[in-house]
Amino acid sequence: MNLWSSTGYMGTGHKALFVWLLLLLALVFLVVYLDGGLDGDPLIFFVILGFFDILFLSTALIRIMRHYQICGVGKRQYDMNAPYPMTSYVYPLTKRTSAVVFVLFQEIKSRQAEFMKAFNSGDAAGAAALYDPEGYFMPNGIDPVKGRAGIESYYKQDMSEGVKSCQIITEEVNGGDDWAFERGSYHLNGTRGPESGAYLQIWKKVNGKWLIHNDCFNVIKPAKK
Predict the structure, then answer these.
(1) Which of 127, 131, 203, 202 is nearest to 158 (CA)?
(2) Contact yes or no for 132/147 (Cβ under 8 A)
(3) How far apart are CA 114 and CA 116, in angstroms?
(4) Hey, what long-range contacts does 90-93 have (CB within 8 A, 24 or more apart)?
(5) DSSP states of 41-102 as a string?
(6) Longest C-alpha distance within the chain, in Å?
(7) For range 213-217, the mean pLDDT
(8) So what's the pLDDT on residue 92?
(9) What's the Cα-to-Cα distance from 78 to each of 6, 67, 75, 159, rounded to whole Å?
(10) Distance (Å, whole) CA 93 – CA 91
């Protein structure tokens, strides 16, 4: 930790000026004292010098408290959900972040509803249309699939193997600007019985629409073979 960083109370230029000022004052008072000034009283000299020492130490102490957030001094958070990184005190930031995340959550959940509607109606092309044209789909236990055409083929195969419906439960959404991540669980039903698992998706906003850029899932309770 740099007690004199430009983000603290003093930048590098002020540091040099402050240190040299202390040394100069100490030298002046020392010369005056040795020359018989200040009535030759050493106490006056040390009181004045001590005052500047206290000023220096208190500044350093406050910087340390800010760094380690002691007694609430300098307690800050970073808002990564805003369109640009920013800092703010805790209460206003929490309020702003909650609002941003809520809106983002609803946007992603709405897009998942579109995916489920397409998939549950047997529309593999419509389900694949929710993906970025350059997106990746990484199913459990098989090689990744790139692009909408490959993703559409994967869903067609799923449907031909008896998967009739899917339910997607969005559990967490976060992000900002043109990127977001989503974590949740899924449940499939079909001729082989139910299957359930967890998924993680990266969404990218393209031309004002959220598209799935990366998608991966993990099977927790597989269907019967």
Answers:
(1) 127
(2) no
(3) 6
(4) none
(5) -HHHHHHHHHHHHHHHHHHHHHHHHHHHTGGGTT--EEESSSSS-EEE-HHHHHHHHHHHHH
(6) 104
(7) 98
(8) 44
(9) 19, 15, 11, 44
(10) 5
Token pair 């206290």 in the structure block, residue: 54
For 7, list phi and psi in degrees, rounded to 5. -90, -5
Q: Tell me how far apart the alpha carbons of residues 118 and 126 are, in angstroms, rounded to a whole number.
A: 5
Q: Which residue has the tokens 């994967």?
A: 154
By mean pLDDT, which of 64-68, 87-91, 135-139, 210-214 is the weakest?
A: 87-91
Distances (CA, A) of 202 to 50, 72, 144, 146, 147: 59, 36, 15, 14, 15
> Which residue is listed with tokens 């850029």?
213
User: In this predicted model, what pLDDT tens digit does every residue of 123-174 receive, in sequence order?
Assistant: 999 999 999 999 999 999 999 999 999 999 999 999 999 999 999 999 999 9
Residue 9 is given by DSSP the state S
**What confidence tier does 84 reach under pLDDT thresholds 50, 70, 90?**
very low
Non-local (6+) Cβ contacts of 11 within 8 A are: 4, 5
The SS3 of residue 36 is: coil
Residue 67 has φ and ψ, to the nearest 5°, of: -65, -45
User: Please, are residues 32 and 39 in contact by the beta-carbon 8 Å criterion?
Assistant: no
DSSP, res 40: G
Question: Which DSSP category does 194 fall into?
Answer: -
- What is the rounded CA–CA span in Å between residue 194 and residue 190? 7
Q: State the pTM of this model.
A: 0.58
CA pair distance 213, 29, nearest whole angstrom: 69
| Amino acid code (one letter) for 224 | K
Q: Which residues contact 167 (CB under 8 A, 6 or more apart)?
A: 116, 186, 187, 188
